[in-house]
Design goal:
- Belongs to the SYCE family.
- It holds the Pfam family SYCE1.
- This is Synaptonemal complex central element protein 1-like.
- Helix 2 runs antiparallel to helix 3.
- The protein has 196 residues and is mainly alpha-helical.
- The chain has one domain.
- The chain starts with 8 loop residues before the first helix and ends with a helix.
- The longest helix has 123 residues.
C-alpha cells in the first residue's frame, strides 16, 4: 500500500485500536483529524495522478488515432504508388514494343531503299550498255554507209538512207523507252523517300 506522509493505511486503521494497558481506547480527535488530513491529501494526490493519467491516456488515444489516420493515408499512398508503378511499367512495355516496331519498320524501309538503289544502279548500267551498244551500232552503220556509198549507185541512195534512218529511229525509240523506265524507277525512289 502507498504510504501517505510517513503513515500507512494499516497504521491509520490500527489507530482506532490503541491500547492503554489492557483497555481499548478510541483514537483522539487530533489523531483522527491528522489521519483525515493525510487521507484528504492522499486523495488529492491520487486524484491529481488520476487526472494526469487520464490526460495522458487521452493524449495517447489521440496520438494513436492520429497514427491510425496517418497509417491509413500511407496505405492509400502506397496503393496509389503501386498502381502508378504498374501503369508506368505497362507504358514502358508499350513504348519498348513500339520502339521495336519502329526499328523493324525502319530496317525494312532501309532494306527496301537499298534494294531500289541497286535496281536503279542496274537500270543505269543497262542503259549505259544500251547506249554504248547504240553508239557502236551507229558507228558501224556509219562505216557501212561509207562503204556502201561507194558500192551503191546514187539512184539507190535515197532507199538506203531511209533504211538507215528507220534503224536509227528504232534504236532511238528503244533508248527513250529505257530512259522512261529509268525515270519511273527514280520517281518511285523519291516517293519512298517522302513516305519515310
Amino acid at each position: 500500500m502507498e504510504e501517505l506522509s510517513g503513515c500507512s493505511v494499516e497504521e491509520m486503521i490500527n489507530l482506532t485500536t490503541l491500547k492503554e494497558g489492557d483497555l481499548l481506547q478510541p483514537p483522539k480527535v487530533a489523531q483522527l483529524t491528522e489521519i483525515l488530513r493525510k487521507l484528504q491529501k492522499g486523495q488529492a494526490t491520487i486524484k491529481n495522478e488520476y487526472e494526469e493519467l487520464k490526460s495522458a491516456k487521452e493524449a495517447l488515444l489521440k496520438e494513436l488515432e492520429s497514427l491510425h489516420t496517418k497509417a491509413y493515408e500511407l496505405e492509400g499512398l502506397v496503393k496509389d504508388k503501386r498502381e502508378l508503378i504498374t501503369k508506368l511499367q505497362l507504358q514502358c512495355e508499350d513504348s519498348e514494343q513500339e520502339c521495336c516496331r519502329q526499328l523493324k519498320k525502319n530496317k525494312e524501309s532501309k532494306d527496301l531503299l537499298e534494294q531500289r538503289r541497286c535496281e536503279i544502279q542496274e537500270v543505269r548500267l543497262k542503259h549505259r550498255k544500251l547506249r554504248m551498244k547504240f553508239e557502236n551500232q551507229l558507228q558501224q552503220l556509219t562505216e557501212q554507209f561509207k562503204q556502201l556509198h561507194s558500192v551503191f549507185t546514187p539512184e539507190r541512195l535515197p532507199y538506203e538512207l531511209e533504211l538507215a534512218e528507220n534503224t536509227k529511229d528504232q534504236l532511238l525509240s528503244t533508248e527513250q523507252l529505257k530512259l522512261s523506265q529509268l525515270h519511273q524507277v527514280n520517281e518511285e525512289l523519291e516517293e519512298m523517300k517522302k513516305q519515310k
